[in-house]
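> tool_call: predict_assembly(chains=two)
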Amino acid sequence: MNFDDTPQEAAFRAEARAWIDANAPHELLADLENAGFGGLNLSGVDPMQAMKAWQKKKFDAGWACLHWPKDYGGRGATPIERVIWGQEEGAYGKLSGTFIIGHGMCGPTLMAWATEEQKRQYLPPMAAGEDIWCQLFSEPAGGSDLAGLRTRAVKDGDDWVINGQKIWTSGAQHCQYGILITRTDPTVPKHKGLTMFFLDMKSPGVEIRPIKQVNGQSGFNEVYFTDVRIPDAQRLGAVGQGWTVSLTTLMNERLTIGSGMPTGFEEMFDFCCRMDTGEGPAVDDKAVRSKLADWACRASGLKYTGMRAISALSRGETPGPENSIGKLVAGATMQDIATFALDLMGQYGAVSDPEMAAAQSRFQAMLLRSPATRVEGGTDEILRNIIAERVLGLPADIRVDKDVPFEKIPTA
Amino acid sequence: MNFEFSDEQQQLRDTARRYLADHSPSVAVRAVLEGEQPYDTALWKGLGEMGFLGAAIPEEFGGLGLGYLELCVIAEELGRSLAPVPMSSSIYLAAELIKAAGSGPQKTAWLPKLASGEAIGCLATSEGPGRVSEKSIQARVTGDRLSGAKVPVLDGMAADFAIVAARDGDRSLSLFIVDLNGPGVARQAVGTIDPARGQASIAFDNAPAERLGAAGEGFSLLTEALDRAAVLTAFEQVGGSDKALEMARDYALQRIAFGRPIGSFQAIKHMLADMYVAATLARSNAYYGAWALSTGAAELGVAAATARVSATKAFQLCGKNNIQVHGGMGFTWAFDCHLFYRRANLLALTLGGQSEWEDKLVERLRRRNAA
């Protein structure tokens, strides 16, 4: 049991570190390290330009999309090398946020289902950060129950005609392309009538409307499709195979591990050491200590669960559904921490004005962002179902709509 | 990096699991719980013969001379099987304290006997309700005679000697070895929440006592020993958590109500998922503790307290929810659920309660961050 690199891992780390030292945008480091929740605030620089510049630099030097094959713009690196890169890239990794969905999910889906020609055409610009991709999955009627989606695709000659609405599409307003799951046959049970495509987001009939969120920001969007035409050549997998294709995408989401979900614990501990409640530092209060200890254990438990997952990767094992605990624990912890941090501030906890608020308004931002963490990419309840069913082997929920033709399923 | 136990250590775990499945089934736990015997003497002898007791005791003192990681995997299996033996008192505490602070003659006198199981040691610190602190200890040594009362003393009926925390002549705290079969010692069993691990009330009246470690160093020796024992106990708690979770899961699959297995209801599934999450976090934190213990890392204080708080929480949660999933049957003497519930709540106290360890964790994090 040790945290030591093997000689090969140490050599890779040294190479990565040297390249990052020589090439990273050091002038942005302080801002990146301080970046908390919500958008990146980089003094004097447009965040999108900074992200694209760093991605392109990595791509040109062979450090982009480490786990992808070299032919498609990656490095063909091992999973453990990808983890080491993440450790070395550190705060600069926050510049990758806008590419995560493309590199982690859309790219691997194309690799599994697109033609060789398409892979060579679309993957390298995605790796270089020139094209940003989004994932058009969730719908107003298909969230946790994704297979309940209603966006229709109807064949017309060599094209498909798309009508419907997607929602919660991260970063759609910045994207050149997206992968889109649609219903092509409403007469069969819901999982069997789905088909996957990719499309140009500038296609006529695509309308993107940012969603104003609880925290006032707009990271998510609604995307409306009105008679949008997609060539049949941009279909991924067979007609009716969309559910299987979507599982490729969702499985890849799980491979993004070891990066560690933030819980807010370090910030909270630091805050409690500084914050004077009027009776001394908050950390001296018994009630505060008990909560801090619990959160310390959750943060540490996630960190070392991540280390165990990395060890398994390093032995060549595939990460499984047990990694669902990361977001489940981190999301709830962050929300608890934010709520309690405001409580310690008393009436002043309500102040979120960045010029006045305690701790740079960090905990107010956390409070207003954390509900999304508990919903996005699998709600707490879906994650508990996954653990119960796929880790512990309990029966799947009874699905009354499983064998019913989609068009016969009652709607609200 | 490799944050896992080695293949050899995993094999040792398998060996220990098989051995304990055969020799520490729940019927053996119940025999101690319900009987007069303070511990399972046959199992104890067997653990000595298997080398489990002496795993982390050096070869020159009759042990196997393996490391703490080996002792951790054995501890996990002891916890899983609820082994009714004085392992924590005799090995995690007494042998560890003698290894750390004993004189040459003390090591020679006790370690080989502890490794074989021929002698059993225990630790006596508590004198009544409330936390054990430098102030709480009133037992006193004058000359080389110890007087005072300790209660409860885990495995105090089973032990041959106790390491007793007492005020030394000049009022500073020191540790002393006292022969429990010698003069000036009166002990009796006390009823506890988990009779499968017996406890005693011990009165010392001018009992001959031999100092262990330097005078006045008692509390720091004790603090360090409790950290090492906390990591090992965390493995027992993790083993117990896993077993309680498995029992609950198996029952949820088999019990039918409202025409379907109760494990198909989300209320049950989510309760079990939460138990899994707590047990997984506790296991990872216990590994962190094991790493710190085995490498002598400066982080041991933080790691031990983290492992302890996390494992206590997980085992208490798994213990109580195991009963809840079993419904009324979980509250019967006949089902084994209560054995886990008892042990979870006993282990939550034996090295000091949860709030005490929460305090230690926060203080240590604060000191680490300030450094």
